[in-house]
Amino acid sequence: MFFEDSVMMSRLLTSLTLIFHVIFATVGVGIPIMISIAEFIGIKKNDRHLQLLARRWTRGMTVTIAVGVVTGTAIGLQLSLLWPNFMRLAGNVIALPLFMEVFAFFFEAIFLGIYLYTWDRFKKPIYHWFLSIPIIIGSTLSAFFITTVNSFMNTPRGFEMDGGNVTNINPLEAMFNPATPTKVFHVVASAYLTSAAILATIAAIIILFRKGSEYHTKALKLTVTATFIFAIMTAIAGDLSAKFLAEHQPEKLAAGEWHFETEVGADLILFGSLNEENEVENAIRIPKALSFLAYGDFNAEVEGLNETPADEQPPLWIHYMFDLMVSIGFYMLGISALYLLFWKVKKWNEENKWLLWAIAAGGPLSMLAIEFGWIFAEEGRQPWILRGIMTVAEGATTSDHVGLMFILFIGLYTVLGAGCLVVLRKMFKDHPAEAEFESRYPEAAATKEVDE
Amino acid sequence: MGYEYIGITVLWLFLYGYLIVASIDFGAGFFAYYAKITKKDHIINQLISRYLSPVWEVTNVFFVFFFVGIVGFFPDSAYYYGQALLIPGSIAIVLLAIRGSFYAFENYGFKNNHLYMFLYGATGLLIPASLSTTLTISEGGFIEETANGVTLLYGELFTSPYSWSVVFLAIVSVLYISSMFLTYYANRANDHSALALVRKYALFWSSPTIIASMTTFIALSQHNPEHFQKAIDLWWMFGLSVAFFMIALFLVYVGKYYGWAFIAVMFQFFFAFFGYGASHLPYILQPYITISSGVTNETMAITLITVFIAGLLLLVPSLILLMRLFLFDAEYVKGKK
């Protein structure tokens, strides 16, 4: 049974940890920049609402960061516990960014601690805002360093294999391998996008269910505008990633696109299904669009999956992961553009029910897109753990008890996930924004009432 | 001195750092819970939470630094320890995860919730116990390498007196270090009722600490006579450790210079920990990994050391800033900020 298969269980346990961790890692990278933007505009325009927004987001983030830290520690240790052979080999070449990631995180943690407890300790509020910069640098650099490790697994560089040993090592070349630029750009842009979208979801839901106030309207405007900008960034990053795949990892692109025969002017296949002869049915075909996606030229030649030996091909179901990820990306771009249009056209109400619902769906959908994207990226590298050099089966532990540990970790993540939701709900439900605004800024709240 | 010595020294320093800051944190969690069930929480929990709030994440990073660093400098350790420690390692992850996240949950959402406080207190003792397994198996005799890979011999581990003496030492040291620090911190905050209580804890936990150290030495001489002999050759380091222990105990007993007392505690563990580490060499894991056989290639080692120095130049000023704002800002310590 596969429960006793240590390779299978190591893969499942790693997926479990990553699927859970990436939720918190993503908001940990993206929310600091949203906080910084809100605080900066709040100080510059002397807008108390935006300053309060920054405060409340920070408070929520402390809880998600805590879960991110502990699950990050988990995956850091599991790399060695579940993939000892891989780490023994890769540690020789790619230890540098792993090491630097810890520095970046350390730096972030120190300044987050300071930021959190010094809201009112400076005479000039802008000094407090300066503290948000090292947090952004630290969190984005963490994402950068860890993504270079994943890039290295896809396009290993910076060493030579001599029998079973690695020689001629160049740590910087390993870190800045061909996959690094596009992957880092894609990861960082999509983390920003998803964080903005989740914050927009919260604002939209409060306006839908509790009427909301000026505070929530401002939050919605800020977050949806940011969503729009980050969605454009993510789309560009996604396009560059496809072009990278076409050149350096053609089998991943081919499996993701169900592109079997090498041809010029290749069609792009959206969704659909495969029959028993591996022929595509029920799909939407966009003529020559795959060639354009891969090379920016409708008549370019795109390598098909049949060029890759059968035992080195990724599974074909990743096609759906790719299509779902891309569809959600375009949904986010469309819905945020629509909101901006409704906002700018005076006659239209940007807070109409349908639009709010569509925005509310955006946060969870973006997070799903992150998961689909990572599943595509990881499954698309199969059977390799280090492409062309070591398979996942060669990298895994031989220990018998991985299945048992899998159950243990399901329990852990259930408890952490539930605890996180309960605490976040309690934190904000017991202290609504309006009440906090009045107690924190009584003078601003009072003038408001006179104005009205 | 080869770069493998620089590597292991740096890593050992980090582990020492973790030993101190994590012990303070682990013990504080236990004392907070203990004070709650003995209805003395109003006396010390304010003090404990003012210290822990800003620094808990930093504690965790020391640990991550150590294990990421050791895999970087000595990739073979990933292979042997990784395979052998699947179960104890996973249990440690779960405990660390529960501790870290429930601390945040309690602190930001549910103040003084009984279950959260219990989990925070219990994990504070269980984590050192589970992590100390790693040091135990590094002595050799608990791991078997076959054609199928590396396995941990649980029967040997659970019946070994050495293994249990290490667990005992880990737990009492945590309580000792933590209560010594809290004594200093309470004094700094001019909190007399808290000081009286934590000073009592500190005096209470000092004798078990020295007894546990002696027991561990005796068990080591049974389990690994070779290592024991090398430790005896470094007798002066352990002698200094005991001397600093006496100084710390004396200062706390007479109730003066609590700051110096805690520094003496740090030296006590510094000499014991480095004496242990130095006598452990050249082995990282007996008999499979020595620092020269297991070390990474020269390029990577030099790069890691360079990055390490650059990183320290960045981090030390930031840490000092953090400490000045919280730990050593008298007004903050007293609860006025």
UniProtKB/TrEMBL annotation, chain A:
Keywords annotated in UniProt: Cell membrane, Electron transport, Heme, Iron, Membrane, Metal-binding, Transmembrane, Transmembrane helix, Transport
Transmembrane residue ranges: 12-41, 62-83, 95-117, 129-153, 184-207, 219-238, 317-342, 354-377, 402-424
Parts forming coiled coils: none
Location of this chain's protein in the cell: Cell membrane
Top-rank taxon: Bacteria
Membrane topology listed for this record: Multi-pass membrane protein
Alphabetized InterPro entries for the sequence: Cyt-d_ubiquinol_oxidase_su_1
Similarity annotation: Belongs to the cytochrome ubiquinol oxidase subunit 1 family.
The name this protein goes by in its record: Cytochrome ubiquinol oxidase subunit I
Naturally occurring in which organism (per UniProt): Halobacillus campisalis
Phylogenetic placement of the source organism: Bacteria, Bacillati, Bacillota, Bacilli, Bacillales
From TrEMBL, chain B:
Domain of life: Bacteria
Stored InterPro entries: Cyt-d_oxidase_su2
Transmembrane segments: 6-34, 55-74, 80-105, 117-142, 162-182, 202-222, 234-253, 260-279, 299-327
Subcellular location(s) of the protein: Cell membrane
Keywords: Cell membrane, Membrane, Transmembrane, Transmembrane helix
Keyword Membrane: yes
The family this protein is said to belong to: Belongs to the cytochrome ubiquinol oxidase subunit 2 family.
Protein name: Cytochrome d ubiquinol oxidase subunit II
Organism: Halobacillus campisalis
